[in-house]
Amino acid sequence: MADATSYALLPTSVRTTTESSGDSSLPASGGFFFLSFAVVLITAVAFALGGGFVKDAASHVVGAISETDLDGELQNLHSLHPDPVSRGPVLGVSEKASGGSASLLLGGHGGYPWTNDMLHWQRTGFHFQPPRNWMNDPNGPVFYKGWYHLFYQYNRDAAVWGNITWGHAASRDLVHWLHLPVAMVPDQWYDANGVWTGSATVLPDGGLVMVYTGSANSTVQVQCVAVPADPNDALLLHWRKHPSNPVLLPPPSVLPHDFRDPTTAWVDPSDPSAYLLAIGSKNDTGDRHAGVAYVYSTRDFLSYRLLPGALHTVNGTGMWECVDFFPVSVDGARIGLDTSERAGDGVKHVLKASLDDDRHDYYAIGTYVAEENRWVPDDGEMDVGVGLRYDWGKFYAAKTFYDQNKKRRVLWGWVGEADSERADVSKGWASLMSIPRTVGFDTKTGRNLVFWPVEEVEFLRTTRYDFSGVTVEPGSIVPLSMPTAAQVDIEAQFELDSAAVDAAVDAEIGYNCRTSDGAAGRGLLGPFGLLVLADSVLSERTAAYFYVSRSADGTLRTHFCQDETRSSHASDTVKRVVGYTVPVLDGETLSVRILVDHSIVESFAQGGRSAITSRVYPTQAFNRAKVFLFNNATSAHVKAKSLRIWEMDSTFNHYYRQEAVQICSN
Ligand code: DQQ
């Protein structure tokens, strides 16, 4: 599909600056790199003439599932429903296809004619992904005997969801990984349909226990326990499923396939010899369609007691998958708290649920009243499932862990594909993990969390390019000259010209990223920001941008959005405009950090108050990805007060063997 955008490249000025290189600790002025850029004017129609949006095209597929009995089950269902049916619900969990339209079910034909070079380029350089095949949720992340462990939902047979095992990798620093043999496979009756999501609990003596969901068959989910076969093995290579499994069956009040994904356990504040853990579920009685988090008490992880009531429930939100529940320090005294930290002065609790209905991770901050088995959101209107999200893009089934090594809380999220299942099968893999992000309370707003790439990501920065001080005229684009921008870390701060802001009394009211024209729209005070993974003529580009509007009461509102709609000529990828308002306090400049790593773009606005993740699949920009500044506002000049871009090293992950353990240990 050719992009309908027509614009003329009209260089109006050329400027040179110096910049630093190599050691990223050097100041910008200390290096010898030469920068030149052209300011390119475009007309209002330039962006606006772009092609229409390609909305989500839900794919309905039946893919490669190895167990014969399950195949039989799918066949039966398929004969009842002549239309394609999705694989997930049949097997007791939601849709797992990537969302693009060229599905395997349709014979694997059609769709964009991807070349091997393009598909090969889509693999990332510094994000975690298994060497091959399908991955989904992060499981049981933990720091154990000097190693960070990441387990994940993994199909070792194919690049589509099914036959779920626990993949496993370990790392010294959360960015360089040692791929280890799978930790658990479906080899028991109680997890024959899949070893599903679970969490790790570190015991006071340093021991470790995993509680996970066994999918016994397509209609029953049970909870199971596994422990390290050799607790002295820092790599945790072997796991022993407990002979008492399953340790927990669905209570009579819930449907047996709506009972999954146990959290990390925390010490019961009223009984230090007991642990509590939460499990997500759904209450479909009447027309409630409520998401629910139930809490169980246990002393030995083998026998459990359901506490009366529920930790929390929200009508209309449907099945809560992958619930997470953890304390945050609200006075900013500590960046992370152990999961067992008690509620009280300076400590609130975050409840997160992954909504099966819309595949987004929602959270709220509130008060945990342990003695009443109750959690109450600070703001009822911003409750779980209706308010804040961890990320406004493609990001699901996330899980945090307390890193006792660096005393921080770290978040992993599953970033699925937005291309077709057929393309996933061709490239031989599907899904990435987000960059690991620290999670903390935003002491400035007092209302939200902040998410930020772990500091170890900065060690991957190599050559730095500094474009600070560039002013972008209304309706213009500025190419940023650097050799390649497929793996970069960008940090920018923008200033909107204050005269234009004051004059913009008529700035649009009710702007919404999702329903807007994205980067192609034009308003008095936006959109402006960066175009990444762009080709030189901008026929493909992904925009991370701000848009300042007014609220009904006349105050300014800032939106942070990501526009994927022009990210690829391929029409069988899901492309959307995503994002939401982001708080900007008096005196703050607008700031964004963007991690670009081939087919993933992760952006963090205002120090991480808002995060957006996109998957994009360029057909022109691949291998020669460029970055541009743009300002499509009609009246405001925008100055990039600071703008630095680092090339990023690859993490060159290793497969498990003794030499690799040595290399990764150093
Ligand atoms: N993925 C797992 C389930 C969980 C879902 C199955 C969330 O345990 O509810 O792969 O993506």
From TrEMBL:
Name the UniProt record assigns to this protein: Beta-fructofuranosidase
Keyword Hydrolase in annotation: yes
UniProt family annotation: Belongs to the glycosyl hydrolase 32 family.
Keyword flag Hydrolase: yes
Membrane-traversing stretches: 32-54
Pfam family for this entry, one: Glyco_hydro_32N
Gene Ontology biological process terms from the UniProt entry: carbohydrate metabolic process
InterPro entries on file: Beta-fructofuranosidase_N (IPR021792), ConA-like_dom_sf (IPR013320), Fructan_Metab_Enzymes (IPR050551), Glyco_hydro_32 (IPR001362), Glyco_hydro_32_AS (IPR018053), Glyco_hydro_32_C (IPR013189), Glyco_hydro_32_N (IPR013148), Glyco_hydro_beta-prop_sf (IPR023296)
A GO term, aspect molecular function: beta-fructofuranosidase activity
Keyword terms of this UniProt record: Glycoprotein, Glycosidase, Hydrolase, Membrane, Transmembrane, Transmembrane helix, Vacuole
Domain Beta-fructofuranosidase N-terminal: 7-119
UniProt domain Glycosyl hydrolase family 32 N-terminal: residue ranges: 127-453
Compartment(s) of residence: Vacuole
Any Gene Ontology CC annotation: vacuole
Organism: Vanilla planifolia (Vanilla)
SMART domains tied to this protein: Glyco_32
Residue intervals of the Glycosyl hydrolase family 32 C-terminal domain: 457-647
